[in-house]
Amino acid sequence: MLDTATLPFTIEPNANPVAASEREALLANPGFGRVFTDHMAMIRWNTEQGWHDARICPRAPLQMDPASSVLHYAQEIFEGLKAYRTDDGGATLFRPDANARRFAESARRMAMAELPEALFLESIRALVRADRAWLPSIDGGSLYLRPFMIASEVFLGVKPSAEYLYMVIASPAGAYFKGGAPSITVWVSDDFTRAAPGGTGAAKCGGNYASGLLAQAEAIREECDQVVFLDAVERRYVEELGGMNTFFVMDDGSLQTPPLGGTILPGITRDSILTLARDAGMTVREAPYAIDQWEADAASGRLRESFACGTAAVVTPIGRVRGTSRDFRIGNGGPGEVTTRLRAQLVAIQRGQAPDPHGWVEYLA
Predict the structure, then answer these.
(1) Is 209 exposed, middle or buried (0-12, 13-18, 19+ CB in 10 A)?
(2) What is the rounded CA–CA span in Å between residue 139 and residue 66?
(3) What phi, psi does 209 have (nearest 5°)?
(4) pLDDT at residue 2, rounded to an integer
(5) Which end of the chain is more exposed for a tag (fewer CB within 10 A), N or C?
(6) Are residues 206 and 87 in the same domain?
(7) What is its biological role (predicted)?
């Protein structure tokens, strides 16, 4: 079997790429998740050959058998990370090694083949090199990268698949939230939970997001931007938003976030924020925080700021919290000082504009 650490990628250029003029028009206002680049990465795995057939090829629809196991048993995982255009016209990746590790951990939890970290990283680098022209130059723009893996064996039966297809697609992105609002309003879900102990909450799999869509739809109906999930056992403690981790800034300058414990996704942006806060000498707590306490602290002024964070949204202030029996504002309802500072520091590192003491940024030649 070929050493997967040195598995070569075959490069198949797109014979009909998007015209440069059309590409530039798309990059002027790409939105989020609607525009895609010319190429994609692809690697296959099966029990006989292991990882093989690594390619950068033209982005195109997949042809799948209707009995492909992902369609019936939901063996699927994904990641999200970004490439950034630097001031000198180069490109950076932010902590791709952390995404590679989390991807392998998600595969392990979902009983899927684990992609070697070296292959994950090379697939990302190769795709960004192929589609470097798609890196937006607009303020706040980035190239969002979506690695994912699906069970591709054709069979009906409850067992781990014997074949997997790993792919990476890329999408130039602007602001995650429509309109680029200075803060968001969130809706507390009373009826639905995201994950339970022993489940797949710590894995980045599609099922976690599918189970939250009904709650997110309720939030949208209530004219909120995101849903907030409480814990599945006591329905008391704040866990995370539909796709982001949560933070709380107290009047003593300390920072608190719900603890990891198998029900919360170990966000890479979350970990980065914790590290930057500790570097700044802030007191940081990873501890449970009850929804009633959130409301009481907001009312008393003990809580000064709240924010959500994730790869897509980066750091986004939470200005208002609503639910069937609650409605409260946090601070002045807009971005707070600590939130603004941490976001600016993180973005500057990601874009190669500030020192990188932790070696998080990879520059692509």
Answers:
(1) middle
(2) 43
(3) -80, -35
(4) 45
(5) C
(6) no
(7) Acts on leucine, isoleucine and valine.
Query: Which stretches in the chain have pLDDT values below 50?
Result: 1-3
Residue 362 within a domain: no
pTM given for the model: 0.94
Six-digit token pair at 333? 């309802």
Q: Can you give the length of the chain in residues?
A: 365
CATH of the domain at 142: 3.30.470.10
Residues 186 and 160 in one domain: no
State how far the Cα of 150 lies from the Cα of 165, in Å rounded to an integer. 5
Smallest CA-to-CA distance from 35 within 141, 115, 147, 139 is with 141
Question: Quick one: pLDDT at residue 178?
Answer: 55
CA nearest neighbour of 298 among 234, 248, 224: 248
CA-CA distance, 284 to 76, in Å (whole number)? 34
Is the residue at 358 inside a domain?
A: no
**b vs e for 33-64, b when ≥16 Cβ sit within 10 Å of the residue's Cβ?**
eebbbbbbbbbbbbeeeebeebbbbebeeeee
Query: What are 101's two structure tokens?
Result: 């590790």
192 and 51 housed in the same domain = no
Rounded CA separation 85/140 (Å)? 10
Of 161, 152, 74, the C-alpha closest to 112 is 161
Please say whether the beta carbons of 241 and 229 come within 8 A: yes
Residue with tokens 């001031």: 87
Per the structure, the complete domain to which residue 74 belongs is given by: 4-174
d(CA 272, CA 346): 8
Distances (CA, A) of 347 to 93, 102, 169: 12, 22, 23
pLDDT in the model for residue 119: 97
